[in-house]
Design brief:
This protein has helices at about 5-20, 30-40, 90-110, 160-165, 170-180, 250-255, and strands at about 50-55, 55-60, 65, 70-75, 80-85, 115-120, 145-150, 155-160, 185-190, 200-205, 215-220. It is an alpha+beta fold and about 300 residues long.
Amino acid sequence: MKFFTPARLVSVALLLALAGCGMRFDTRAPWRDELEAKCLSSGAVQTSAYIETASRIDGPGACGMQQPFKVAAFANGTVGLTSRATMSCSAISSVDRWVKEIVEPAAQLYYGQRVEAMTVGSYSCRNQDSKWFATISEHSFGNAVDIMGFRFANGRKMNVLEGWRGSATDQAFLREITVNACDYFTTVLAPGSDSYHANHLHLDLMRHDSGYQRRVCQPKLNFARRIKAPSTANQIAGLNYRPTTTDNAASVAEMNAPSGLPVTVPTPAARPIDPKVLALLPAEPEADDDGDFKGVY
């Protein structure tokens, strides 16, 4: 009996080619669009000179967002990005608060310097760790960001790969912002968590359980943080509650359950920005630059 006829071999080759090109056949869970709509309605993210709306992304497969944003800077435009990031409403809100409440104070504490820019990665339609057969990555929904490096006001640059085992100051700064990130995000993966995250911090808002109670923070760090995240750190824009270990899982699951109704996404209103801030923003990227770091998870 011939198991591999020429026609069958052609079919297998075609499927492998489609997989290699990122062809997807899954669908996006309804709760993702609903959470996105709630975040937009909450006003947590406003358009500005450094946060612009982009065209809706639908597919391939489950990938995409109803209302993506192109982000050029965080913290009211004072912390620029070396390339624009494509992110969802909730992710922008959490990253922005983490930058303002943790990263900026940590830079002043450990370096006496302001963070001027960050190198980040954002939207990318792919599986975790860029494997063919794996769970779809939160990057596929603009729900994750990878932090690869920083530039400070004095012009000094520091990347995560070298800084994680670099000077005592660099190590302390990176561990300070990583430990505190666990209060803002449901997933935090840093160097030492696995071989895929040796050169960046991966931060996302994956729903590990229906109530956002379970949080993954790796590796476990023996570090006494000097900056304490505020009690509001783990609020997720679009959700009307603050996740705690005492929340009732049943009621949370019911609140997050898909309603089955059409989801409308209002476009946030624009807001003015101080012209002086524009000087801090990166130049417009080349036309073929999607601003994405082809990272993992």
